[in-house]
Amino acid sequence: MWAETIRLAIKAVARNALRSVLTVLGVVIGVAAVIAMVTVGQGSSDQVTQDVGKLGTNVLIVRPGQNTMGPGGSSTSARQFEQRDIDRLIAEIPQIEAASGAERTTMMAVAGNVNHQATVQGVTNAYLQATDWPVSLGRTFLSAEEDSGRPVCLLGETVRQDLFGNADPVGEKVRLKSLSCEVVGVLEAKGASSFGNDQDDTVMIPLRTFQRRISGTSTISMIYMAIEDGYSTDLAKSEIEAALRDMRRIGLGEEDDFSVMDMKQLASMLTGITSVLTGLLAAVAAVSLLVGGIGIMNIMLVSVTERTREIGIRLAIGAQARQVLQQFLVEAIVLSLMGGLLGIALGLGLAAIAANVMAIPFSPDPLVVLGAFGFSALVGVVFGYFPARRAARMDPIEALRHQ
Amino acid sequence: MPQDGSGDTPVIEFRNISRVYGTGEAEVRALDGVDLKIHHGEFVAIMGPSGSGKSTAMNVIGCLDSPTGGEYLFNGVDVAGLSQDQRALLRRHYLGFVFQGFNLLPRTPALENVELPLIYKGIPPEERRARAMEALEQVGLAQRAAHDPSELSGGQQQRVAIARALAASSEVLLADEPTGNLDSHRSVEIMELLVKLRAERNLTIVMVTHEDDMAAFADRLIWMVDGRVERDEPTRKEVPHVG
């Protein structure tokens, strides 16, 4: 009986092919929009995870204050770090392979008569080691340069291109406000970061140079650390936390006034932002599914009226009310499932194109596809029920008399 | 459920059946205390002026409508108080309908129209097809099985409708002005088909008609006026039988 009902429903839908397609257009668009949104969102999340993975999974970032990592930057009243904090951490936790304080600001870099706005970072060689960032030309800082705060710098690929073109800048001078520093090396191109900003748009100078000549303080607002390969970052993290609590004299039960973040956390924070956005967009798209459902109800009501006589015939030859209900309900479900399938195909197609254009991975989620399929069936049930009930409640005598 | 009709139990028995529409001043007594017995294999014609209650009588016999009073025994079992679903089952297994307007499903081939009641009987597709084909052969339309109703003449459409009732192996065929939309030649063909089928399959046929010529094919004529049976008598066999 069920197979029969489904066959019958498909026939009824196929009989009015054009009308059926127009009827389910709302569902098609709704499902396609949801699928495309979620798939593209998933793709960009995957991209972020990939990018962060490239930074190195054994890297920890320590900042003063709580949860200040992210596009918003940090602003906190918590005490900043000093170089001796870093030295003590290294001394207490042998698994720290490299640790570097990092300071950054945005400044105009000038070479000859060319100006370029760049991120100026005060770091040490340990930073380059922790972030796995070698030089492509020249050399890194000498320890004498780091210790005495000499005016030397490394150029990111973007800055180098802008100021010197393809020429070798090593030995040239770059001026940062009043600070004139000598280029000792060029960093390898690294590409865009997970936030979308160009990591190569940077000038690096020794941390001490930065503190003396630019910030004017000895504080450090960020510490980058690389943990020995094979040692658990989670373990290292808790050790660092314990050490810092002790160093900063945080009492039992008091909250940390710093945060230690690993790349996994950073990734999940970034993907969290993406998934909130994706969810919002998908919710908007889902509204059109509702509209699509109303379209199906409308046409099913028309269809029931049109086929009053057919209903009368079926009742007269022995169909029970629930069989008529079943027939029209299945028809509505077949309609909406058809819309769902078309929508899934369209949505995945759009997402594939978008992924290609945005250069992110195409990551279709089978669960979401299955969910969309199930949801469109639900739309059929919900919006098909009322018309089907109307059909089932007909009086056979009246229905047969209907012209 | 009714037993297989045998012996002297009438297939259809009305005991003081009434069917009242509305209440108070607007009350209409479409059937007003009708007593009626129809036996197996009988061919009964019901006639009467419009408003006499003959259509209501047909609807009650066909279990499309429930009487408001009296007892309706179908094969000896009272079915007056059955629910809508139970009446549907009764129609499915015992009753076949032929209407003035043919009432075939549009844009559906003759064969599928004939199969329709068998679907509700839960008969598997192959057997269904075979039985529907057999029924179409009996009404002489086997070669038209694949045609839609719109491609068939009125007489042919009515024969498809008769085949539909036959395929379900209904005991009782209820024909509501089956020749009302046909010319006289086709009408006679349909009546001869009914007479033949009645003889072959021991069908019980109840037919409502306006036309004396058609009523003459029946064995018995029930004349209704104002919701009552006024005359109930054998027909005069004036029309010569073919063959």
TrEMBL record, chain A:
Key word Cell membrane present: yes
Principal location: membrane
ABC3 transporter permease C-terminal domain segment(s): 283-396
Segments traversing the membrane: 21-40, 276-304, 332-355, 367-386
GO MF terms held by the record: transmembrane transporter activity
Highest rank taxon of the organism: Bacteria
Pfam families: FtsX (PF02687), MacB_PCD (PF12704)
Keyword Isomerase annotated: no
MacB-like periplasmic core domain ranges (all copies): 20-242
Membrane topology term: Multi-pass membrane protein
GO cellular component term of the entry, any: plasma membrane
Compartments in which it is found: Cell membrane
Keyword annotations from UniProtKB, A to Z: Cell membrane, Membrane, Transmembrane, Transmembrane helix
Family: Belongs to the ABC-4 integral membrane protein family.
PANTHER family the UniProt entry points to: ABC TRANSPORTER PERMEASE YTRF, MEMBRANE COMPONENT OF TRANSPORTER-RELATED
Protein name: FtsX-like permease family protein
From TrEMBL, chain B:
Keywords: ATP-binding, Cell inner membrane, Cell membrane, Membrane, Nucleotide-binding, Transport
GO annotation, cellular component aspect: membrane protein complex; plasma membrane
SMART domains: AAA
GO MF, any single term: ATP hydrolysis activity
Keyword Cell membrane: yes
Residue stretches in coiled coil: none
Pfam families given in the database record: ABC_tran
Gene3D superfamilies the record matches: P-loop containing nucleotide triphosphate hydrolases
All copies of domain ABC transporter, residue ranges: 12-242
Similarity annotation: Belongs to the ABC transporter superfamily. Macrolide exporter (TC 3.A.1.122) family.
Protein name, per record: ABC transporter ATP-binding protein
Organism: Thalassobius vesicularis
Lineage: Bacteria, Pseudomonadati, Pseudomonadota, Alphaproteobacteria, Rhodobacterales
